[in-house]
């Protein structure tokens, strides 16, 4: 009986994990349904939430074009160590996902980004973006305002301004790091905007480079087509 129960438990676990596809996908998935939230949905520290591939959005809309919003304008607010999986984020929100500490985003798709798709505010540690994708972002997709590292893997971006940006004029200056592994970008002005002149005071720091320098920004195995 013990071995039978263990086998059933294992099969259930395998079935659940199979529904989360974090491989690189370049076709946006169809939502399995729609859920409109009157207020931001909070995922508690260390907890996990599976959205069942439904489209999650805000009603009424909190999108205000490129005006900076706050936590209350997001669809999901993740406390430290929370995990969000299998979600389609709709167009009627200003901020998408806010991570207050480290977080993990598995197979999250943003259909039409308003101000930002996801914002990372951790003071240390690593947040993960595994699979998923975003499209139609006038400006930023992944906004890194906190410290630590944002690690992006198997991500697809289409018709966006910046796939990732490290904050240059946030109230608190942090040494921020980011990694990108097996991402595909189809139409973007910037793949990763990083703050090489760290600690510069004032408003937005001045632009110092437009290509990898091997130190502040290093790349390898980059393939381009259609240029």
UniProtKB/TrEMBL annotation:
GO BP annotations listed: pectin catabolic process
Signal sequence extent: 1-17
Catalysed reaction, written as an equation: Eliminative cleavage of (1->4)-alpha-D-galacturonan to give oligosaccharides with 4-deoxy-alpha-D-galact-4-enuronosyl groups at their non-reducing ends
GO cellular component, as recorded: extracellular region
Keywords: Calcium, Lyase, Secreted, Signal
Keyword Secreted applies: yes
Enzyme class, spelled out: lyase
One GO MF term: pectate lyase activity
Cross-referenced InterPro entries: Pectate_lyase_PlyH/PlyE-like, Pectin_lyas_fold, Pectin_lyase_fold/virulence
Main location: secreted
Location of this chain's protein in the cell: Secreted
Stored Pfam families: Pectate_lyase (PF03211)
EC number, UniProt record: 4.2.2.2
Cofactors: Ca(2+)
Family to which the UniProt record says this protein belongs: Belongs to the polysaccharide lyase 3 family.
PANTHER family: PECTATE LYASE F-RELATED
Known function: Pectinolytic enzyme consist of four classes of enzymes: pectin lyase, polygalacturonase, pectin methylesterase and rhamnogalacturonase. Among pectinolytic enzymes, pectin lyase is the most important in depolymerization of pectin, since it cleaves internal glycosidic bonds of highly methylated pectins. Favors pectate, the anion, over pectin, the methyl ester.
Name of the protein in its database record: Pectate lyase
């Amino acid at each position: 009986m013990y071995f039978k129960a263990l086998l059933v438990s294992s099969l259930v676990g395998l079935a659940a994990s199979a529904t989360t596809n974090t491989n690189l996908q370049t076709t946006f998935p169809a939502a399995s349904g729609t859920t409109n939230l009157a207020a931001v949905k909070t995922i508690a520290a260390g907890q996990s939430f599976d959205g069942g591939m439904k489209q999650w959005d805000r009603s009424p809309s909190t999108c205000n074009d490129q005006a900076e919003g706050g936590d209350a304008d997001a669809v999901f607010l993740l406390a430290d160590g929370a995990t969000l999986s299998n979600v389609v984020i709709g167009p009627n929100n200003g901020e998408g996902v806010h991570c207050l500490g480290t977080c993990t985003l598995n197979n999250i798709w943003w259909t039409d980004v308003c101000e930002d798709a996801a914002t990372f505010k951790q003071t240390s540690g690593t947040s993960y973006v595994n699979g998923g994708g975003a499209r139609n972002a006038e400006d930023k997709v992944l906004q890194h305002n906190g410290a630590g590292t944002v690690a992006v893997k198997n991500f697809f971006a289409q018709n966006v301004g910046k796939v990732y940006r490290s904050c240059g004029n946030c109230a608190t200056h942090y040494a921020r790091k980011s990694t990108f592994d097996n991402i595909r970008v189809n139409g973007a002005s910037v793949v990763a905007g990083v703050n090489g002149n760290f600690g510069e005071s004032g408003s937005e720091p001045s632009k110092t480079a437009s290509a990898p320098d091997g130190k502040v920004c290093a790349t390898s195995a980059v393939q381009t087509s259609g240029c």
